[in-house]
């Protein structure tokens, strides 16, 4: 689930929890610069470029120019980029904090200088609004789907779980996934639990595990890029693309993952939010904050996309066009 909420007072957020009681720019006059910043420091992901383009287009429709970052997981670079935007006096900034404690002081300076500050994916103490994800639901839904597949498949199965516990979203996804998987599927043995953050590392780690466990059946991954790498490792090891005894699952609903789901092969699931809904919520929340409007969007729920519902897969894929 995803939601956006203003935080000038104690407001109800995702799941009925209080989002925050700390607000910032209540006495500020909206900037006449009409420039927003969108900082999503995960440039290696397949959906990075279409995400930025869509946010930029939506903001432009509302009369705002968008500047973006090209960082890929470098916290020091993220801090530098955000500090520069605050100094430049942008109308508002949206950011996915790689390490929330490092971004809190920047959020405070932004609020003190009447620069709108929107947190994506987590709640900060110093923010005007948050676009929040129930990251745990994404991991849990993938875990449930994988458990159900394993139970239906029967026979002894071996699984690899690929995580990125170095970031908040990755930890929450992994905790929730492992709470559901293997769960009641007593025929599953998780033989390895390792970090992988992109397609290359997903392929490399999976290849290594396959050498030690050539009878590996399942890979559950932190995101689709990692899962696609895992799938390639299976193909390289001689598995058929439609092997009925192999399950690969990811998260985020990237275009390549959705196309693989349409093939009805070993790539069997992706937990995702509709791309149109996601980008609209992000862009409009940042612009609303820039204009002094309380944003109210969502909630948006994660859906587990599978070949069993080709219409839903096609709908999510069409959102990228």
TrEMBL record:
GO terms for molecular function: carbohydrate binding. Belongs to the bacterial solute-binding protein 2 family. Keywords: Signal. This is Periplasmic binding protein domain-containing protein. It is found in: Cell envelope. Residues 43-292 form the Periplasmic binding protein domain. The keyword Oxidoreductase does not apply. The keyword Signal applies.
């Amino acid at each position: 689930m995803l939601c956006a909420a203003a935080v000038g007072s104690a407001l109800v957020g995702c799941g009925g929890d209080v989002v925050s009681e700390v607000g910032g720019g209540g006495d500020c006059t909206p900037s006449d610069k009409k420039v927003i910043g969108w900082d999503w420091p995960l440039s290696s992901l397949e959906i990075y470029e279409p995400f930025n383009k869509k946010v930029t287009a939506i903001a432009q429709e509302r009369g705002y120019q968008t500047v973006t970052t090209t960082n890929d997981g470098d916290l020091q670079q993220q801090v530098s980029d955000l500090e520069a935007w605050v100094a430049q006096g942008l109308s508002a900034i949206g950011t996915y904090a790689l390490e929330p404690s490092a971004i809190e002081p920047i959020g405070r300076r932004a609020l003190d200088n009447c620069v709108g500050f929107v947190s994506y994916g987590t709640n900060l103490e110093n923010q005007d609004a948050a676009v929040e994800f129930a990251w745990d639901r994404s991991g849990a839904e993938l875990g449930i789907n994988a458990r159900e597949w394993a139970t239906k498949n029967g026979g002894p199965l071996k699984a690899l779980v690929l995580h990125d516990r170095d970031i908040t979203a990755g930890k929450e996804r992994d905790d929730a996934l492992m709470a559901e998987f293997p769960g009641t599927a007593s025929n599953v043995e998780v033989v390895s639990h390792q970090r992988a953050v992109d397609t290359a590392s997903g392929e490399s780690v999976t290849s290594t595990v396959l050498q030690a466990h050539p009878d590996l059946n399942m890979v559950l991954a932190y995101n689709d890029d990692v899962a696609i790498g895992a799938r390639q490792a299976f193909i390289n090891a001689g598995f058929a693309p439609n092997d009925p005894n192999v399950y690969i699952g990811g998260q985020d609903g990237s275009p390549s993952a959705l196309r693989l789901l349409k093939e009805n092969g070993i790539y069997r699931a992706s937990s995702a939010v509709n791309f149109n809904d996601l980008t609209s919520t992000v862009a409009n929340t940042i612009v609303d904050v820039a204009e002094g409007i309380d944003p109210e969007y969502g909630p948006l729920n994660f859906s587990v996309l599978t070949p069993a519902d080709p219409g839903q897969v096609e709908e999510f894929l069409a959102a990228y066009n």
